[in-house]
Amino acid sequence: MDNTEFAKLAEKTISLIADTIEVEDKNCLIDIDFQGDILTLTTNQGVFVINKHSAAKEIWLSSPISGPYHFYYVAGKWKSKSSDDLVVILEQELKINMINCSY
Fold it and tell me: N or C: which end of the chain has fewer CB within 10 A?
């Protein structure tokens, strides 16, 4: 994947995550701030930060629950080196339905 393809895919993914959370957060418990390439989610558990890292061609997640992750795109999913899935982690930690978040 070249830099342009990565940028488009990462931006689409992060935007889709923000949109999905906005729709599925029925009780308005998550404050969403999407500035440039950085998505900040403020919850009662702490602050989650999701951003793209172009040099590594990864999406990075900083979670107040499980710590930092680096995800790379493989076989249609964003996976960590330990095979964790970005969407699954967000779904579990934010306790929100991310089923409609398909990139």
Answer: N
* Alpha helix positions (H), 3-85: 3-24
Domains in the chain (CATH in brackets) are 3-93 (3.30.920.10)
